[in-house]
Specification:
Layout (H helix, E strand, L loop, with lengths): L1 E2 L15 E7 L2 E7 L7 E7 L4 E7 L15 E6 L2 H15 L49
Antiparallel strand pairs: 1-4, 2-3, 3-6, 4-5
Length: about 150
């Protein structure tokens, strides 16, 4: 699996977090996580064996940074009894590292927004540069420049 994107020849699929949690039993969870200080590509490769899996943890530094050395973030691995226990350390790391305030204590959230149940954000990954629906302006399918 790869983060923040996957699906190359060497990864079977993608994940939206550099966190892996494997449920081994009813109350047995194993977790691995990159404790990044910035958003960077991390991949995990798991190779099955007779007694378990072997994990390869891969970190990619920003390619545009010219350095003589690369330092990987700290990787955290452990066991937990519940999925919440396995995921909670990741959330706490993100909250601290990126200064994400607790939702219930935020003062900059409007009262009406706390009632919102779904937000959809088209990411534009396959955007062609053409605007087909300009919401009421003249019908024009010419490329948007800028």
């Amino acid at each position: 699996m790869g983060y923040p994107f996957g699906g190359s020849l060497f990864t079977a699929g993608s994940t939206n977090t550099p966190r892996v949690v494997i449920q081994a039993g009813k109350q047995e969870f194993f977790f691995l996580s990159a404790l990044n200080q910035q958003v960077r590509n991390n991949r995990s490769c798991f190779q099955p064996g007779e007694a378990g899996h072997r994990a390869e943890l891969i970190y990619e530094n920003a390619g545009w940074e010219r350095r003589a050395s690369i330092e990987s973030p700290v990787w955290r691995g452990g066991r937990a009894r519940t999925a919440e226990e396995a995921f909670r350390p990741r959330f706490e790391h993100l909250e601290r590292t990126f200064a994400i305030p607790d939702w219930d204590r935020r003062h900059d959230v409007a009262a009406w927004f706390r009632k919102v149940a779904l937000v959809v954000v088209p990411h534009g990954m396959h955007w062609t540069g053409y605007v087909f629906n300009d919401y009421g302006a003249k019908a024009d399918c010419s490329p948007v420049m800028g």
